[in-house]
Amino acid sequence: MKFVVPGLVSGLAGAVLGVIAVIGITAAAQQNSIPSPEESGDPGSSVLGNVQYGSR
Predict the structure, then answer these.
(1) Cα–Cα distance, 14 to 18 (Å, whole number)
(2) Polar residues compositional bias: what residue ranges (predicted)?
């Protein structure tokens, strides 16, 4: 019976740490904002933000 208490404590600690890890990873993985569009390049020489190089 010496192994029952440490086993229960270990199981409880693992469960608590697992719940904390799942909540932390879920909170970190949430994307709450839309990234702003990239506005680089000259609008007169670009098509949908992709600068065209060379002649066609």
Answers:
(1) 6
(2) 47-56
